[in-house]
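Exercise 3.2. Students should predict the tertiary structure of the chain below and write it as structure tokens, then compare their answer with the key that follows.

Predict this chain's 3D structure.
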Amino acid sequence: MPCKADAIQNYLSGKKYAKLQRLQCVENEEVKKHLVQSHKKGREHQLFCLLTQRHLNNRHDHIMKHVEGKRFQRVLKRCKYGRSTGIVSIYMKS
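Answer key:
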């Protein structure tokens, strides 16, 4: 890319840059520790949720839909409650 102001401005307002911005991973550290790279054959390109035991695509919209869903929120609440009371749960992986 040429080092000109109009070329840079054109890139920053384009679709490619907007898509890369959306692909930024989850910012929340509490949620981030429950999503790990999958090691299962054929699913290396996906993430694995340690709480819900589900695979999900490594796309921002898929991650946000999973994290904001009822199942994830319910299990996260159970995990937090278990940690605060000292109850060991199957959902506590780390």
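Discussion points: Residues 70-85 form the longest helix (16 residues). The two ends are 44 Å apart (CA to CA).
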